[in-house]
Design brief:
single chain, mainly alpha, 3 helices, 88% helix, elongated
Length: 88
């Protein structure tokens, strides 16, 4: 369990850093793509932290994987929105 928690912590730190980079790019360009990517990576941070905190006492972790799905849907929406905006 300690190794899994350590790896989850590393992933959470990486997701947080990536989210901060995208937030900085959004602040510079005001492009919605960067904002949505930042939000998606921050959702992944919350999911990783929640996975570690609830690993011992919760059996049904479907909602944790729902959070991951939400992050990927946000990324997909951001890409589709960017492509739709550039087509016009």
């Amino acid at each position: 369990m300690h190794l899994a928690a350590f790896i989850s912590g590393l992933l959470a730190a990486g997701y947080l850093t990536i989210g901060l980079f995208f937030a900085r790019f959004y602040k510079r360009t005001r492009d919605r793509l960067f904002l949505l990517f930042a939000i998606a990576f921050w959702v992944l941070v919350v999911q990783r932290v929640a996975t570690v905190l609830t690993a011992e006492w919760i059996e049904n972790v479907t909602w944790l994987y729902g959070m991951r799905l939400l992050a990927f849907v946000i990324i997909l929406v951001a890409i589709l929105d960017k492509n739709r905006a550039s087509d016009g």
